[in-house]
Amino acid sequence: MKYVIGIIQPDRLDDVLECLNERGIHLVTVTPVLGRGRQKGVSEIYRSHKEMGGLLRKVKVEVAVNDEFVEPTVECIAGAGRTGNIGDGKIFILDLQECIRIRTGERNAIAIG
Questions:
Q1: How far is CA 50 from each of CA 15, 44, 56, 89, rounded to the nearest angstrom?
Q2: For residues 46 and 28, what is the distance between their CA atoms, to the nearest angstrom?
Q3: pLDDT for 44
Q4: How far apart are the C-alpha atoms of 66 and 6, rounded to whole Å?
Q5: Which of 11, 16, 65, 113 could lock 69 by a disulfide, CB 3.0 to 4.6 Å apart?
Q6: Where residue 79 sits, what CATH number does that domain have?
Q7: Structure confidence by residue, pLDDT tens digits, 66-85
Q8: Which domain holds residue 23?
Q9: Cα atoms in the Cβ-side hemisphere of radius 13 Å centred on 52
Q10: Total domains, the chain
Q11: What is the predicted pLDDT for the residue at 50?
Q12: Which whole-number Å values give the CA distances from 47 to 32, 59, 84, 91, 99, in the listed order?
């Protein structure tokens, strides 16, 4: 089991979610976040808005998956999240030690679904 975290541009979210859905990956958590990368949050024009300060708007997509769904998840986040411009984001893959479905008490691969 893995926990995949993608930090992407907000305007790429719909495409990423659509790709995940097409691959049968439905359990997703999405959070609006602020951050900066190598560009150090330098103000840029983004969707006709000038982003100021040290942090830029991003979206964090979190997905817990069984091992056979890791690559499809990464392909969706990387492919549908890519614009080719600086600030496209990052993907982190972490080992997931345990997962428990609260309603039923199911654990691990069964709980992820």
A1: 24, 6, 10, 19
A2: 26
A3: 58
A4: 17
A5: 65
A6: 3.30.70.120
A7: 999 999 999 999 999 999 98
A8: 2-112
A9: 0
A10: 1
A11: 61
A12: 16, 15, 15, 23, 38
Look up the pTM and report it. Answer: 0.86
SS3 (DSSP) at 97: coil
- Residue 18 φ then ψ, to 5°: -65, -45
- How far apart are alpha carbons 92 and 66 in whole angstroms? 15
C-alpha span between 63 and 69 (Å, rounded):
10
Q: What are phi and psi of 82, to 5 degrees?
A: -80, 130
Nearest to 47 by CA among 73, 19, 83: 83
Per the rule left: phi > 0, alpha: psi between -120 and 50, beta: everything else, 28 is beta
